[in-house]
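Onboarding guide, step 5: your first structure request.
Type a short instruction followed by the sequence, for example:

Predict the 3D structure of this protein.
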Amino acid sequence: MSAQNEKTAETAPETDAIDNPVNPGAEINLDAVGDVAGLQAEIAALKDQLLRAVAETENTRRRLTRERDETAKYAASNFAKEMLGVADNLARALAAIPAEALASDEALKNLYDGVSATERQLDAAFTRQSIKRIWPEGEKFDSNLHQAMFEVPGTDKPQGTVVQVLQAGYVMHDRLLRPALVGVAKGEPKPAGDQPPHVDTVA
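The system replies with structure tokens like these:
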């Protein structure tokens, strides 16, 4: 061996190697194996990050779609609230005209018919927007839909029954626009005869 070859052999870096079982006589470079394992770990980490990013993107898309649908669904809610007062006034105007006056006054009857037609047209517009009127007389009081203004004693109705409606409520889809203002039955105290007899337990 020449001096040059001996020098090269002496200065060549040492590497960890083992016999290759597939190809006897050949050696496996452990440094290369370590590099492959590191790359595989990096690929797994990048794959996990990608899956997380895809999931987050999908969640964001669903949230934006839901918000868009909610906005479209209740877009007319503010305007509808403003129109509730108009509906109230139309109903009051019709209720204030006695039937006897309608029978004897043709002009008043024509006015009544015009107001009634306007009310029906407004009700139809409410229906198209999924706005429903709440008139809960005779129903059980529901704090989600009703607002109790007073209690009414002596009604012979179960306690908490709506016995009077002062103002209609309205809902739009499943959202409350305005609660119904109501009076509810007051529970009456039980008569003395209904009380269980007192038993003296003192000896």
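Each response can be followed by summary notes, for example: Confidence is low (pLDDT under 50) at residues 198-203.
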